Amino acid sequence: VQLQASGGGLVQAGGSLRLSCLTSGRTFSSYVVGWFRQAPGEEREFVTAISRSSSTNYEDSVKGRFTISRDNAKNTVYLQMNSLKPEDTALYYCAASRTIILSDISRVDRYDYWGQGTLVTVSS
Asked: Given this model, what pLDDT does residue 36 score?
């Protein structure tokens, strides 16, 4: 499985961006897909994930501002980011797993496939 993240850019605080994660393969609907981010000098952290049945989980700081969704027909997961803050600045990665259990959905080490990052910069 290959993942390609896109949609990052420079935006002012309060603005919006939509990230996309395009995946290869014919069994996309069987994958859990997550978004993680990594700021300079920081560890990679969980942002949000969407299950096979489209249930979602969010890290507390993005609840109400970010929305994850999936389009299985297009093999794509989206991350709509609204009300962006400077502290959202990071390299954003999408990741996928067929075997992850929902209780592990926020764990970096439970995902098998990773895309390259897409940079999100929020200016104040």
From this structure: 98
Do residues 7 and 18 make contact, with C-beta atoms less than 8 angstroms apart? Answer: yes
Mean pLDDT of the chain: 96
CB atoms within 10 A of CB 15: 14
Q: What is the mean pLDDT of residues 100-117?
A: 94
3-class SS shares of the chain: helix, strand, coil, % to 5: 15, 50, 40
The DSSP bridge pattern shows strands 17-23 and 113-114 to be: unpaired
Write the CA distances from 51 to 43, 85, 87, 114, integer angstroms: 24, 26, 26, 16
Report the pLDDT value the prediction gives residue 12, as an integer from 0 to 100: 98
